[in-house]
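Changelog-adjacent note: as of this version, every example in the card shows the full chain rather than a window. The one below runs 309 residues end to end.
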Amino acid sequence: MTQQLSVKHLLGIKDLTVEDISQIFATAANFKDVINRPIKKVPSLRDTTVANLFFENSTRTRLSFELAEKRLSADIINFSASSSSVSKGETLIDTVNNILAMKVDMIVMRHPKPGAAVFLSKHVKAKIINAGDGTHEHPTQALLDAFSIYEKLGTLSGVKVVIIGDIMHSRVALSNIFCLKKLGAEVMVCGPVTLIPRHIEALGVIVENNLRKALNWCDVANVLRIQLERQDIKYFPSLREYIMLYGINREMLDSLKKEIVVMHPGPINRGVELTSDAADSRQSIILQQVENGVAVRMAVLYLLAGRQD
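Full-length structure tokens:
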């Protein structure tokens, strides 16, 4: 089988085929073996230069990509918009073209505007990986989430996954819905009415506003962070009320008739969406998600770099 994807860029989950996702998973599983060896580096991307362009603050995603690139022996350029000429008025295209003049092969980009990665892919020759664009998509997070469920349960077909919390402002939620549906999972979204987009049922998901009902239904609970920094108005009366209605604790998990898997894309607001005893319980695969993030991003970088266009 040829080691490449059907797409030139990774802009969103909706562009990937089921075969693409399966290949990413198989490649990630191989790389997971690599990063657990005493010598964790492979020369797969030697002589490939990757630019990490982050126009929005990020710690986990940026570090995960950087580590993935280093494990593959790539040369890396790190770019932060806050300390760059963007703050002086330079356009996105100018910034990127200046970086490409340095002979960059791949660009990993996070941007606050939805569609920024798609826009860039039409104007530059480098391969683009979308590391999150506004409230639109975050494809590598969805891939690592789905890979983590697959690793834990052995399948995604027929698995019931509920995504809980701030669906409205979450790029993770949208990418997860696309990815899980493609792989045959059943998907429910749960949260306050004000934080669930209108007509989201059109994506083939179930909407539930009662947390207890959602937890009784699901096999996996993917709990999202309340994104207060993206909320321009108040979507619920108080944080205390949100915690009472949608916060998950150990006692609640123990009261269910079955053991469910608990996930979180991070960073966790401990004591808000998850208490520490729930986040650190044996049902939680949050740390596995972090480890799988490096392997999945290694797989995406490797497969896109191997594609000849």
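Structural remarks: The longest strand covers residues 127-133.
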